[in-house]
# Entry
Amino acid sequence: MWLGTKLGRFWARIFDGEPAGCACNDDATQIWLVRRLFPKWAAGMAWGNVILVRRDQWVHPHVVHLIAHEYRHVLQWRRHGHAFVFLYVAASAWAFLRYGPRQAYRMNRFECDARDHET
# Structure
């Protein structure tokens, strides 16, 4: 888990990040606002205990759902440890084979689980 958190902080620095100034209900989780993410279409991303949110998304009302979604990925990181990255990629590959390229992200089991916990 520590490696994922280090990578999250690294990405925050690369993408001109700054701490959000507020926290989740979990003291170990950090929220960083970044200028952009990779891939470009991503609004948020979780790496270990770090949640990265694009600055332009921070002002939208749906940011509460985005934080809840990304926090679920933080919990997935905690559950699976460093293997989470490989499990996530494998789940995307499985969804790609099963549902096709347009649904590979949406039907990834980790994304389905996070969407179920957005509220």
Observations:
- The first helix runs from residue 2 to 14.
- The chain has a mean pLDDT of 93.
- Strands lie at 18-19, 30-34, 44-47, 50-54.
- The longest strand covers residues 30-34.
